[in-house]
Amino acid sequence: MSHENYELKAEARERVGKGSARELRRNGLIPAVIYGDKQAPISIALNTNEVTKRIHAGGFLTTIATIDVEGKKIKVLPKDYQLDPVRDFTVHVDFLRVSGNTQVTVEIPVHFVNHEKSPGLKAGGVLNIVRHEVEVHCPADAIPEFFTVDLSGHKGGASIHISEITLPKGVSPVIADRDFTIATIVAPAAGLAEEEEGGEEEANA
């Protein structure tokens, strides 16, 4: 699971629209909606400080939460949030209802370890990260916190593909038709220059 579950208290809101949303924000609240699981959407209002704290803590969109709507507790996964383009504060949040069999599509961060055990990096190469996150399908109650790529033994010029990541049971990449690249190890520029010079000399000879 990505992060520890948490609970947010919410108020049901009957009025919707821009005027109502502005009034909520003036009162320190964020308008939000809970949808999905073949049920009618519920419009709610959440404490701005609580939501902002959760967003800044990381893993917001990959962590299951419980929303207490005036005594009724609903299990949800945050699906999206909007920020004010000028003042950079949260203006709206969308939550998806989840149950034991809910499948979700989420982006999981990729962590790289054992840089010092990579011959390519030790020789002065550079790790070129193609995908900082991988989009996957997985059960809502079993979202991985991150994927780990072990760089041990990788030489300069190596490509690291999704097949090198051991995915948990029930987790599959959204891109399923090819073994896509996660990162490459770019050989040192000096080494490349020497190879090019050597090639030119051979050609001249």
UniProtKB/TrEMBL annotation:
Entries under PANTHER family matching the protein: RIBOSOMAL PROTEIN L25/GLN-TRNA SYNTHETASE, ANTI-CODON-BINDING DOMAIN-CONTAINING PROTEIN, RIBOSOMAL PROTEIN L25_GLN-TRNA SYNTHETASE, ANTI-CODON-BINDING DOMAIN-CONTAINING PROTEIN
Protein name (record): Large ribosomal subunit protein bL25
Originating species: Rhizobium jaguaris
The protein's assembly and partners: Part of the 50S ribosomal subunit; part of the 5S rRNA/L5/L18/L25 subcomplex. Contacts the 5S rRNA. Binds to the 5S rRNA independently of L5 and L18.
Family note: Belongs to the bacterial ribosomal protein bL25 family. CTC subfamily.
Gene name for this UniProt entry: rplY
SUPFAM superfamilies per UniProt: Ribosomal protein L25-like
Coiled-coil segments: none
Domain annotation Large ribosomal subunit protein bL25 beta: ranges: 103-188
Gene3D superfamilies per UniProt: Ribosomal protein L25, beta domain, Ribosomal Protein L25, Chain P
GO molecular function terms listed in the Swiss-Prot or TrEMBL record: 5S rRNA binding; structural constituent of ribosome
GO biological process: translation
